[in-house]
Specification:
The chain is built from 17 helices and 7 strands. It is an alpha/beta fold. It is elongated and about 80 Å long.
Length: 373
């Protein structure tokens, strides 16, 4: 993050679209910056939630006045412009009144405050094109927390790290399967992550180990969670669980074509791609998904040019890495045949009147039944 500041200026900014994380980080930062002996007099909070442009401008000017007022007690004080909602790209933020007030604040940040005065700004929906944001980039210690886009390929890796960091603060230790399921059920939403971790934390007491059974019991099961569980059941060759989850998704109103294309086909495809990489390039069964990713990153570009990609062009490695944990349960010929079965099922689902559950059941059975000896 940019950290260029004048010697006499202490400015910190916590911004982005992830409201829950911004509130948490900014609150911790403000308390950390206030000296312990200052008490309530060491922190001056200015509510940045404005109903209109005039109110927003008034709050900015209150911040300026607070920065120009020396501490009453002790030698330091922190001024916190909290939850500002006038730094984005809406009529209130674009108004002349707010922009003029922000120019005044930016000038003060540039020139510096009185000795011992620190500014903290927390805000969501910040317009990064504006000159005030550029002042923060230049002069403030800036932290940006944007909400994770769970519709983007590869989001699981980023969400995995977010959960690990939040769990570490609570000294919770997730099993790999439990972490994967928790990530999918919470979808990278930091507010939900914190809420569900708090439930788990309270439930466990002194025990710090989080297992997949506990996640299933405590974290609400969404559509995405059932699809994830179905993918796991297919990868683990658990026929009974796979059939039960297909039935549950159909009962929840999911279309058979959707189940096939969203859950079954991607699972088989990833298993086949992971199996092929392991056999063609001598990658051993990894102890964790990240070991497989490391091994895959060492391969020449020609060996990975056929793999699924994210929007930015990088390999969608996490899903393949998860599949690599289970690929040893299948022969490559079984997975190739399973893809043919899926193609046949897709044709039946869209061109015939056959029972949809029966078609999906046939796919699952043909994939998961153990080969005859």
């Amino acid at each position: 993050m940019p950290k260029a500041k004048t010697a006499s200026t202490e400015t910190y900014a916590v911004v982005g679209s992830d409201e829950a994380e911004i509130k948490r980080v900014a609150a911790e930062l403000a308390q950390k910056l206030v000296p312990q002996d200052a008490g309530d007099f060491g922190l001056e909070v200015i509510d940045g939630v404005a109903d209109d442009a005039d109110q927003g401008a008034a709050q900015i000017r209150s911040t300026v006045e607070a920065l120009q007022t020396l501490p009453f007690f002790g030698s330091t004080k922190v001024v916190w412009l909290k939850n500002a909602n006038f730094l984005g790209d809406d009529p209130k933020a674009r108004s002349t009144a707010v922009q003029s007030a922000l120019e005044e604040l930016a000038t003060l940040i540039d020139s510096g405050f009185g000795p011992g005065v620190t500014l903290v700004i927390s805000a969501t929906e910040v317009d990064k094109r504006r000159s005030f944001y550029k002042t923060l980039v230049k002069r403030a210690e800036l932290q940006v927390f944007d909400r994770l886009d769970s519709t983007r390929a590869g989001w699981e890796e980023e969400a995995n790290e977010i959960v690990r960091q939040h769990a570490k603060r609570r000294k919770l230790q997730f099993d790999d399967d439990a972490l994967d399921l928790f990530v999918l059920l919470t979808g990278g939403d930091t507010r939900q992550i914190e809420n569900e971790l708090e439930k788990i934390d309270t439930f466990l007491g002194k025990d710090r180990s989080v297992r997949v059974e506990l996640v299933r019991e405590l974290v609400p099961v969404s559509r995405a969670g059932v699809i994830f569980e179905l993918s796991n059941a297919l990868s683990a060759r658990d026929l009974a669980l796979g059939l039960m989850l297909v039935r549950r998704l159909l009962e929840q109103g999911e279309s058979a074509v959707g189940i096939l294309l969203v859950a079954i086909v991607p699972t088989i495809r990833n298993l086949l791609l992971a199996k092929d990489l392991m056999e063609q390039h001598g990658i051993h069964l990894p102890h964790s998904p990240f070991q497989f990713i490391a091994a895959m990153n060492r391969l020449p570009g020609k060996a990975t040019e056929h793999l699924p990609r994210k929007r930015d062009g990088s390999i969608n490695a996490y899903s393949l890495a998860v599949a690599s944990q289970h690929a040893h349960r299948f022969a490559a010929s079984e997975l190739i045949e399973a893809m043919r079965v899926c193609l046949d099922a897709n044709v039946k689902l869209v061109t015939t009147q056959l029972d949809h559950e029966l078609i999906l059941t046939e796919v699952v059975v043909r994939l998961l039944q153990e080969p005859s000896s």
